[in-house]
Amino acid sequence: MTRPRVRERGSRYTAPGPVVVDASIAFLWFAHEPDRAGATRLLEQEVALLAPDLMAVETTNAWWKKLRRHEMDLVDVEQAVTNLLALGIAWTSSARLLRPAARLAADLGHPVYDCMYLALAASESASLATADDRLRRAAERLGVQLWYAA
Fold first, then answer.
1. What's the whole-number mean pLDDT along residues 100-123?
2. Residue 2 pLDDT > 90, yes or no?
3. For the chain, what percentages of helix, strand and coil (3-state, to nearest 5) are there?
4. Given the DSSP bridges, would you call strands 127-129 and 19-21 parallel, antiparallel or unpaired?
């Protein structure tokens, strides 16, 4: 993968092609949170969904935290995992993304695990769907197009 340049200009906010989904969006799909409607709009669109395989782990960990707080039952967590894996997301190996993510993390001063999503979006010319404001700002700095619920 070629190294994308960091830039300070704003990003475009449309998603004509594939969309990289981060854990903050996937979590909302099956967690019954008040702000889930926006995230659910992504599932209503006919776009290819991409994610590093790490996303399934991060998302399941967030549901586990809800389980620990008695905000979800184990059966709900298991069903959420089943539903996530049934969405037809094109999973990309974290091993493939690790080197470019490490470089982006160094350039942006941003955690490597978030940079996995940025590296995938940059390599696939895809938009990024995230509910994480810090990751959104990093994407804007990098020039990665953002998806958002209109």
1. 97
2. no
3. 55, 10, 35
4. parallel
